[in-house]
Amino acid sequence: MPTVRTITEEKNSIFNQFLAEIRDQKVQKDRLRFRRNVERCGEIFAYEISKELSFEKEGITTPLGVSEDYILKDQPILITILRAGLPLHQGLLNAFDKADNGYISAYRKHHK
Q1: Angle between the N-to-C axes of helices 86-95 and 31-50, in degrees from 0 to 180, rounded to the nearest 10
Q2: Looking at the DSSP assignment, which residues form a beta bridge with residue 102?
Q3: What are residue 68's phi and psi, to 5 degrees?
Q4: pTM higher than 0.85 for the full model?
Q5: Are the C-beta atoms of 96 and 76 separated by less than 8 Å?
Q6: Which among 19, 20, 13 is positioned nearest to 41, based on CA atoms?
Q7: Mean pLDDT for each consecutive 10-residue tract of the chain (112 residues)?
C-alpha cells in the first residue's frame, strides 16, 4: 500500500504543497484551510490506494455504443476514529463514493 513517503518521494506533486500547508503554523490557525488540505490528502491517498485494488471489465452503454471499461471489483469499507480522522475520511469518501463507511468513537476518562 502507498504511504506518505512513497507519494512524496516518487515525484513532487501538489500533495507536497498540501502537506507543507498542513505543517505550517499559520495555516494550522486557519481551520477551514487546514481541514480542506487534510481532505485533499485523503483524495490523493484514495487515488493511490485504488492502484492496488482489483478491477473488472464491464460493458458500459454510451450514446455511441458499448465501451469496455474497468470498474472497481469490490468497494472498500472505510472506518475512521471520530474527530481527528474526519477530514481525511471525507477525502477518501469523495473518491470511494460507493464505499460503506463507519466510525469508531472513544473517550478518555481523565482522573483529577
Answers
A1: 40
A2: 79
A3: -90, 115
A4: no
A5: yes
A6: 19
A7: 64 88 92 93 92 94 96 92 84 93 82 76
How far apart, in whole angstroms, are the C-alpha atoms of residue 47 and residue 1?
11
Bridge partners, 57 (sequence order)? 70
Which residues have CB under 8 Å from 92's CB, separation 6+? 42, 43, 45, 46, 78, 99
CA distance 77 to 96: 9
Closest to 89 measured CA to CA, from 60, 46, 54: 46
User: What letter would DSSP give residue 96?
Assistant: S
The β-bridge partners of 80 are 103
Quick one: cell of 106?
Answer: 472513544
Looking at this protein, which amino acid is placed at residue 85?
G
Query: What separation in angstroms does the CA of 62 have from each of 54, 67, 72?
Result: 23, 7, 19
